[in-house]
Write a structure and sequence with these properties.
This protein is mainly alpha-helical.
């Protein structure tokens, strides 16, 4: 039996609770979303608030002015501090989001940042290549050996660029593997041109970048009509076997 309020009037039933979205993992809980999983204004975690103020967020947004302010403040080390469990530093975020000016600014002041590793041993070049940001990939390869008193001239810089292009993550994948697996033609072509040797590297499952390229082409062929089998390699400049 429903309770009574003041004066014996029956209490109104409580408002219905919003139902969880059946596909919440793929759902963008925006302002128009009525799903129970959408974060409420007062429900942000401390970690989320910290991220909003971090150099990683500034890099993600491409906010060079904010990065400059952090670098010139009392704690410039924050430009190299990871945020979140994935272990991504600001340069990772800038490269993944395609923020070219932010990536250039971070790299110009510390070229060694190009070799920062995430928790899965991914470099910023892995992030740029996987997302198809060829201009950022070129910036990383050009800038990873510059400045910083590294010395050794052009040959040493080329050696560092080669080392970056051949760096493998925890799955044994190079940046070229990731560019090919995601069908990023421009980034893959750039990496092949800068380091042809990367085409012969095998990942943890024994696959070359060319294998990954063919896999993603075959998947697209199954999803779309008109992809000819003779075009499996596209126009990527694969080196001779």
């Amino acid at each position: 039996m429903r309770g009574a309020g003041a004066g014996g009037a029956p209490l109104a039933p409580p408002p219905p609770r919003p139902r969880p979205h059946p596909h919440h993992h793929d759902h963008d809980h925006g302002a128009a979303c009525g799903c129970a999983l959408r974060p409420q204004p007062l429900q942000q975690s401390l970690g989320e608030l910290e991220f909003e103020r971090s150099a990683c967020k500034a890099a993600l947004d491409g906010d060079v002015a904010r990065l400059r302010a952090i670098g010139g403040g009392a704690r410039p080390h924050l430009l190299d501090e990871a945020s979140g469990g994935a272990g991504l530093v600001p340069l990772h975020y800038a490269c993944r989001a395609g923020r070219l000016e932010a990536a250039r600014w971070l790299l110009a002041r510390a070229p060694w940042r190009a070799f920062c590793l995430s928790a899965g041993r991914a470099t910023p070049l892995h992030k740029a290549a996987a997302c198809g940001h060829a201009a950022i990939a070129a910036t990383l390869l050009d800038g990873c050996g510059g400045g910083g008193g590294g010395g050794g001239g052009g040959e040493a810089r080329e050696d560092r660029a080669r080392a970056l292009a051949l760096a493998a993550d925890d799955d044994g994948a190079t940046a070229l593997h990731l560019a090919c697996a995601s069908g990023r033609r421009e980034a893959a072509a750039l990496l092949l041109a800068r380091c042809p040797e990367a085409a012969r590297v095998r990942d943890g499952r024994g696959r070359t970048p060319r294998d990954r390229w063919r896999e993603q082409r075959q998947q697209k062929q199954q999803q779309q009509r008109g992809w000819g089998a003779e075009d499996d390699d596209g126009d990527l400049p694969w080196p001779p076997d």
